[in-house]
């Protein structure tokens, strides 16, 4: 028992490291070669044997689920780093936009046609949406964003711009920074209260 208690944490860390490496390799290979890439090719890219790959991810669906979870957790980390509760509304929106586009381009494989995604964790999805909704509500309360469209509509417009901008980035027509600046310019110039600089 003493030996198990001493080494179990290290074993867990190693398992997490191996799984993370497999997921990262899968994201790269799927983005480069498309959804037809085989599990054997993913294992080779990750530097592990097929038996190791299947030990961590018993099926392709399990691997895609792991990839989806990693992408959502990456987004949650970027939301936390954006410090949206204390930054000004325009600054926080800009940080969120860069974070979403950066994470989205990293996990581009999930957006490819032919990739059948598992059902997303609804609670996790809510954790992604709520900070954006809270920020938009604050923007309206502070007189920075217009109050006449409902906040739910502002949310759909903002996330719609993000989605389209991400596709532009993935097509190689724009970098993340340029696309992020365009999203913020279009969204705020259309949503900002006339005469308000939002600072």
UniProtKB/TrEMBL annotation:
<dbReference type="GO" id="GO:0000976">
    <property type="term" value="F:transcription cis-regulatory region binding"/>
</dbReference>
<keyword id="KW-0804">Transcription</keyword>
<keyword id="KW-0805">Transcription regulation</keyword>
<dbReference type="InterPro" id="IPR001647">
    <property type="entry name" value="HTH_TetR"/>
</dbReference>
<dbReference type="InterPro" id="IPR036271">
    <property type="entry name" value="Tet_transcr_reg_TetR-rel_C_sf"/>
</dbReference>
<dbReference type="InterPro" id="IPR009057">
    <property type="entry name" value="Homeodomain-like_sf"/>
</dbReference>
<feature type="DNA-binding region" description="H-T-H motif">
    <location>
        <begin position="38"/>
        <end position="57"/>
    </location>
</feature>
<dbReference type="InterPro" id="IPR050109">
    <property type="entry name" value="HTH-type_TetR-like_transc_reg"/>
</dbReference>
<dbReference type="Pfam" id="PF00440">
    <property type="entry name" value="TetR_N"/>
</dbReference>
<protein>
    <recommendedName>
        <fullName>HTH tetR-type domain-containing protein</fullName>
    </recommendedName>
</protein>
<dbReference type="GO" id="GO:0003700">
    <property type="term" value="F:DNA-binding transcription factor activity"/>
</dbReference>
<feature type="domain" description="HTH tetR-type">
    <location>
        <begin position="16"/>
        <end position="75"/>
    </location>
</feature>
<keyword id="KW-0238">DNA-binding</keyword>
